[in-house]
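A quick aside before the break. I want you to see a complete sequence-to-structure record at least once, exactly as it would be stored in a machine-readable document. Don't worry about memorizing anything.
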Amino acid sequence: MSAFKSDFLRTMSERGFIHQTSDDAGLDNIFAKETVTAYIGFDATAKSLHAGSLIQIMMLHWLQQTGHRPIALMGGGTSMIGDPSFKDEARKLLTPQDIDDNLAGIRRNFMPYLKFGSGPNDAIMVNNADWLMEINYVNFLRDVGRHFSVNRMLAFDSVKLRLDREQSLSFLEFNYMILQAYDFVELYKRLGCRLQMGGSDQWGNIINGIDLGRRMEDAQLYALTTPLLTTSSGAKMGKSASGAVWLDAEMLSPYEFWQYWRNTEDADVGRFLKLYTTLPLDEVARLERLGGSEINEAKKILATEITALLHGRAAAEQASDTARKTFEEGALAESLPTVEVDKAALEAGLGVLSLLVSAGLAVSNGEARRHVQGGAVRLNDQPVSDERRLVTPGDLSPENVVKLSLGRKKHILVRPV
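That is the input. The structure line, written in tokens, reads:
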């Protein structure tokens, strides 16, 4: 559809969120006429979501900002199985306690983006364990399972991919799409939810829910999916060389989060400004036009705006200031990520290889050794060429820390305690 009437779909289209909808005109019509309730599901596979989930969270944010009601569905029930969509192998099964612990952390990820409450467009957080864990299996097969065609389920790309590769797809995983479809129907019955949103890999599961809603409740439900994002070089969003880009500040510091976005590839800056910030589109267009060294200013704005949305403006400005002092002024910024080491161990002498591993700059002594041999390691901005180098109290700065660096962009303060 070339031009949407509704604020929400127009915003989604202009900012690049829409990959596919089940009915452009029908969806636009209900958004233009009424307050729409829509949801996105999040399974509890870790104690925090990572940056790969930000596009979905931003969709819920814009949904609320344009006057509609978002539901963040926590997958307490479906996490007991694990979504097999486009996965090469079955997910590790989580215990109920694992899931509860993960849900507690994930809930915090949404607070900066959504206003929760009891108002007409206040966000709602629900857990599908509330209904899935109460299901009677035989009744579920009779009432819900009879509406699903195995032939059709086998035809979905997410299933065909596993089968074509002759990779096992368990009966447990095969049921996931039925449970997700049932979630949609339950949310329609309980909360009047008309729209499910998600990544394009969820299209088949969402369409199943639309079909089930029509068969069970004679309901007109809708789907909206986003593109599956990668960087211009093909890297998966939400991952860095050091691991996942977590949204929880206890798992990844605001500075490290800021730095991830500061390192955005030139070709991605405009796209990410539209998707991950709330900057007006005319300002985004201005930043997109910057070239040469000026593109770095756009990257700093991108990093600061994304970090401010998640961690607050003060934390974002501090991260930006830390980066400026570290990279542009060569100063020792106290707000750099810090790792604590035992004072007695430092006095005895800590091997630089083990320190690199402890600081999270290498996963093994072998990798740390390769970094040293490649000239990538520095202590207090001085190159380290000897892999047997010991770090001692003599390396401490007046601030009582050692600055450990890997390459030009990764810096850790080592502090004895």
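Two observations worth writing down. The domain at 7-231 is CATH 3.40.50.620 (Rossmann fold). The mean pLDDT is 88. We'll return to this after the break.
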